[in-house]
Amino acid sequence: MKILSDKNNLQILHEDNHLIVVNKRVGDIVQGDKTGDKPLSDVVREYIKEKYNKPGDVFLGVIHRLDRPTTGIVVFARTSKALSRMNELFSNRETQKTYWAVVKNKPKETKAKLVHYLKRNEKNNTSKAHSKEVPDSKLASLDYTVIKELQNYTALEINLHTGRHHQIRAQLSAIGSPIKGDLKYGADRSNPDGGIHLHARKLTFVHPVTKENITIIAPTPEDPIWNAV
Known about the structure:
Radius of gyration: 18 Å
Shape: globular
């Protein structure tokens, strides 16, 4: 997909009067947190203010998030109407999300559905995948397909059926295939940039205002392994 703009550390994949879609980079936080680092939402707000010469505060609604070490598609709303409708689409799972992941150990099956019960640990900000339901756990489900075998790694395409905390990371770790660079979930070493090889690759949804079908594809980061995928 063509990148509309790539300045101020901002890759814009889609922009209209109601939505703006960005290709998040490693290390960006989507929304402000206790680190005090400048969030992507502020960068996008500044971009809109400058581009359209808007006086005063710029409205920008955060619809969903990606983990800090993850890359790929993040959608923001430019109007309150778009925000409420997109929130509904996401909460009702009326969007289709596809991720790419590069894992260390090839899964036993080239194509499979994974179902676990995820229990979140707030203290260390992780989720553990259990094969059976445990107290305070939530059902987590995804499909994966092997799309490419590299020399030391395997690339997977993943479709999510649920949206749980660290779901892909925890479920792939549970089957012995941790994501490259993901120390929290069993990778043997970190990536030099502190990121992990998990990328929100594709998003399909019905536009909240125009009602047209929108499909967005985010280019992978520039590195030798993603380039090989």
